[in-house]
Each structure stands twice: as structure tokens, then as C-alpha cells.
Amino acid sequence: MINDDDHVNFRQFRNMPWKVAKAEHFSDWKFSKHYNEKFDELMRWFMQELHNDIAQSSMTVFPATAANLQRYGCVGLNLHEIMQRIEEQMSYCQHA
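RE: above sequence
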């Protein structure tokens, strides 16, 4: 959801354009969206939980707002339900 010209802060780097950060610091990462909807939902749940854990242990990072959670599709995510759908899909693929 970040545009290449947006500025980001990470580690000791401050106010760096995202396109520069990707090229210089994350060149071996893939940022394109994958097309496995179930995996995408699992990763959004994971990132939501990771961010929340970091925010709870930090004095400078705050939990995402309800608006941000909505914007990034992190509302109503339930790990048990996500895993159940993934397991059903895997079972279906094994029998096909």
C-alpha cells in the first residue's frame, strides 16, 4: 500500500523514499502481491499480530488505528478460521 515516492523510516534510516529503500536495503525481497487469497489472509493476520506485539513492547510504536486496520484488510481475521479454510483447500487438492 506504500507508493514508491512515499518516505519510510526503518532502523537508523529516516525519511527515505520507499523506492530507494526497496532497491538498496530489500533488493532480495518480493513486493508484488501474490494471488493465493488464503495465504494473503493468513499473512495479513500475521502482520496485524506482529505489529500489535511490537507496539505493546515499545514506547514509540503505537498500535494501528481502526481506520488503518480497515484500510489494510485486517478486520475480523480469525486464525482458526483461516487455517481451517487452508486445510480444507489442501485436502481438496490432495484428493483431486
